[in-house]
Amino acid sequence: MILSDREIEAAIRHGFLTIDPVPAEHLWTSTAVDLTLDATLVRWKPGGPAVRPGLPGFNIRRLLEDPDRAERVPIFTEGYELQPGQFVLGYTEQTIHLPKGSRLAARVEGKSSLARLGVGVHVTAPTIHAGFGDNPDDPNDRGLPIQLEIFNLGNLTVALDVGMPICQLILEEVREAPVKGYAGQFSGQKSFTELRP
Amino acid sequence: MTEITYFEEVRCELSPGLRDDHLTACVTDEEGRTQYLDVTPTLINRHEGVPFLPVGFVQIDRERRRVLVEFPCEAYSGANRAWIAFEHLRHVDRPIS
After folding, report:
1. Do A190 and B7 touch (CB under 8 A)?
2. Are A190 and B60 an interchain contact pair (Cβ–Cβ within 8 Å)?
3. Alpha carbons A84 and A152: distance in angstroms, whole number
4. Could you tell me the CA-to-CA distances from A5 to A37, A150, B48 in Å, in that order?
5. What is the pLDDT of residues B34-49, one digit of tens each?
6. Full-model pTM
7. Residue A80 in contact with residue A159, Cβ under 8 Å?
């Protein structure tokens, strides 16, 4: 079931969901909340040997941190010009946390205003799973930004600006407590004792 | 004296679920009300053939010998939590001298 704006707001208020900072009023719609673009993009450098994600041990994070493969690009005041056919990685300004116990998952989707220009924000990977942003070492952690795969399929150059609404977050209820990520919860292993005559 | 250890599982009765591959688990709260939950069969634990619904402990009320438990999914009634009598939890009894 998709959460309405009122349910999203209530979930934030009761700590079942963190969106930090909470987007301004004009970024809310009836069943979604818009997230905004952070100030840094990551651009892949062309060339080099083929990337083989099917091999054991493939690590996208390592690839992102390899200066021969990727570069960080700040967005200046004039915006970042996304050329036709170009692909960059971006991040939301907001961090997201979906605590496991809240039984919420989410999807990040594009915005029609950008879609009409040919700009998409994810490449077939829209799901934000229950437990996203959980930090076992710090229960008060405010979560993680959402990484976006931004591409331009149109024939116009489209400027990306810091703080522009870039995607929408749709919250959904998870019907039954999942197995994965729920070690120790609903496993029937916790106990207490009493003494009876 | 007997030392009784209670686990995070509530005795339940099973009947066909809303879908062919689901079950309805029926548990009884401390006031005798029944709560029905639509669950997947693998969620149910069995001990010596008796089905138990795994739950989470929220609060233990030793004085009234009841536990506030969190269900693994919302009951048909809309309830997510219920007070359950100690006796309805899975327990292991150990006589001590």
Report:
1. yes
2. no
3. 5
4. 21, 26, 47
5. 999 999 898 999 999 9
6. 0.69
7. yes
